[in-house]
Amino acid sequence: MSIINHFFDYIKGYLKIDFTGHDKVRFLNLCRNNRFNIWNIRMSENEEHMIFFSSIDSFYQMKKIRRKCNGKLKIKKKIGLSFKIRKYQKHAFFLSGIIIFFILIKIISLYIWNISFDGNYSYTDVELMNFLNENHIENGLKKSSINCDELEYLIRKQYNDITWVSVEMKGTRLIVHIKENFDSNIAKTEDKPYNIVSNVNGVIDSIITRSGIPLVKRGDSVEKNQPLVNGTIEIQNDAKEVVGYDYVNADASIYAYVTYDFHESFSLNYQQKIYTGMKKSAIELKLFEKSLFFSAFEKKPKTFDTVKDYKPLSLTKNFYLPVSICHIRYNGYKIEDQIYDQDQAYELANEKINEYIHDLEEKGIQIIENNVTIDVNESECIMTGNFVVLQQIGQIEYIDKNE
Amino acid sequence: MLIESISDRLEIPKDVSMGATILNVTGQYGLFIENYKNIIEYTEELIRIQSRTCKICICGKNLHIEYFNEIGMKVCGRIKSIEFI
Questions:
Q1: For chain B, what percentages of helix, strand and coil (3-state, to nearest 5) are there?
Q2: Helix (H) or strand (E) holding A357
Q3: Strand A202-211 vs strand A49-55: parallel, antiparallel, or unpaired?
Q4: For residue A104, what are the CA distances in angstroms to A169, A288, B31?
C-alpha cells in the first residue's frame, strides 16, 4: 500500500470495521475470493474482535457474506475527505460565509482605506491631504498603483521646508512621515550649489557664515532677493587674476530686523449666534466613500451648526476597512444683530493683535517692537501700525554654472 | 514427481510449474506470501496458510495482516518461526 494509494483512499473515504463472530477466517477467505478491498487486519487479544479497514464499496458488498459467517459488522470509525464534506455540509452557509469573509478581506487589503500624516507641525493634515488629492492619491486607490518614491519626490518638491519624507504602506494604511525644517528657513530641493538671498526687506542684525562668501554685514539694509552669501568662490592666481571658480552650498545663520505692516479693521455691528438649544443628531454610515443615512432629523431649523465626528472602522491598528461611522450633530441657532461697545471693541482688537503675535512667535520670530494703535470710531474699530521683529532670513538661489 | 523432474530439467521455476508458494521474508518483521490458497487459522500468535502443496505455519507475536488479495498477502509483526507441514 503506497502513500498514493493511501491518499486516494482518504479522498474516497474508508471505514474502520469491527467484525465479531466465530468464522473470522472464513470471512477473510470470502473477502479475498470476492476481491474486497480490506487491509490492516488485526485480531484482538481475546480473539473476539477482528478489526480491519475497508473501502466503502467493499463494506456494502461484504454485508452479504456476513450472514454466511454468522458474524456482525460494526463501523468503528469513518475516515476520509468524503465523510468530512458530508459532516460539514450542514454548515455550508457558515463555511461559505467564512470563505467569502476571507475573500473580501483579501480584496479590501489590495486598496488604501486610510491616509495619515506623521511629524507635520506647520502643515495641517487637511492641507497635505488636499495636496495628495490633487495628485490623485485618495482613499480607495489600489495599492499597486501608488509609487511611494514618486510621491515622496512630489511632496519634497512642493514643500521646501519639508526636509525628509517617507511614504509607507502598512496594511490598508498609507502613512506619510514628515520631518520639517525648524532651524533655518533654508531648505534645498536639488543637488546643485546655491547662494543665499534675502526673502524679506530688513536690516541685518548678525551674520555667521559657515560656507560661501558673505556679501552683507551687520547694520546693512537688505531688500528682498538681494544676495546675502555667495556660493561662487573665485580662484585667483598670484597676480590676483581670476583663473576659475569653485562652487559651494552657501550656508549661514543670518538674523535681521524686519518690519511687518499690520492693518486690520472690523465693524462694530455684528451678528451673534444664539443657540436655541434645538439639538438633533443622525448617524451616517460611509461605505466605499458612499454615504448612507440611518436617521435624520425631521424638523430642520433654519440655521444650524453641523458637527461631524467620523470614526473609521479597523480590524487591526493598520487594517482599516472601507467603512466609517459618522455621528452628525446639528445645533440650531438664530442670528441677532448686536453692537460692540468701546471696551468690547478694544478687547477684541487686542485679541486679534495677540493672535497675530502668537502666530509670529510660533514661527520662531522674536517681536522687538509693537507699534500698532487701536482706534475705535462710531462704526468700526481700526488697528493700524507695524511690528518690528528679529528673525532668521535667507532662501536659496541655485547657481547656474553657465553664467 | 514427473512434473517436478521435467520442470527441473527444463529449468522452469517451481512456482510456475507446480504452483509453489513464494515467501519473501524481511528480517523478523515482515513476510510477503504469494501463491497461497486460503487462510486456515489466524490469531495474534499464529497464522496458518494453505498453499497448493503444503500448509505453512507462521508463529510469532502481534501478528497481523497488513493487506491481502488474490495475488498475495503481507504479514507483519514479530515472526519467530515459519514451518512447512
A1: 15, 60, 25
A2: helix A342-362
A3: unpaired
A4: 19, 13, 56
Nearest CB to B67 within list A1, A29, A43: A1
Beta-carbon contacts of A47 under 8 Å, excluding residues fewer than 6 positions away, are A24, B43, B44
Query: What residues of chain A lie within 8 A of the CB of B39, using their CB?
Result: 25, 28-29
CA distance A308 to A282: 10
Only one residue has cell 491481502, namely B68
Element (H, E) at A269: strand A269-287
Tell me how far apart the alpha carbons of residues A373 and A262 are, in angstroms, rounded to a whole number. 10
Q: Say what the pLDDT of residue B77 is.
A: 92
Q: Which of A36, A92, A46 is nearest to A69 (CA)?
A: A36
Give the H/E segment covering residue B72.
strand B72-84
Predicted-complex ipTM score = 0.84
Contact A306, A374 (CB under 8 A): no
Average pLDDT along chain A: 85
What nine digits make up the cell of A284?
Answer: 451616517
CB B77 within 8 A of CB B63: yes
Q: B22 to chain A, minimum CA–CA distance in Å?
A: 18
Q: Do the Cβ atoms of A28 and B41 come within 8 Å?
A: no
Burial class (CB in 10 A: 0-12, 13-18, 19+), B8: exposed
pLDDT digit string, tens, across residues A37-85: 888 999 887 888 899 999 888 888 888 888 888 888 899 999 998 888 8
Burial class (CB in 10 A: 0-12, 13-18, 19+), B38: middle
How is residue A373 written as a grid cell?
494703535
Mean pLDDT of the region A91-97:
85
CB distance B39–A42 less than 8 Å?
A: no
Q: Whole-angstrom Cα distance, residue A185 to residue A200? A: 12
pLDDT per residue as tens digits for the range A208-262? 998 889 999 999 999 988 999 988 888 888 888 888 888 888 888 899 999 989 8
Bridge partners (DSSP) of residue A339 are: A269
C-alpha cell at A15: 471505514
Ordered by where they begin, the domains of chain A are 3-83 (3.30.70.2280), 114-179 (3.10.20), 194-268+340-403 (no CATH), 277-335 (no CATH)
Are residues A25 and B42, on separate chains, in Cβ contact within 8 Å?
Answer: yes
Burial of B47 (0-12, 13-18, 19+ CB in 10 A): buried
> Does A32 sit within 8 Å of B64, measured CB to CB?
no
CA angle B10, B11, B14 (to 5 degrees): 115
Short-list A216, A231, A211, CA closest to A401: A231
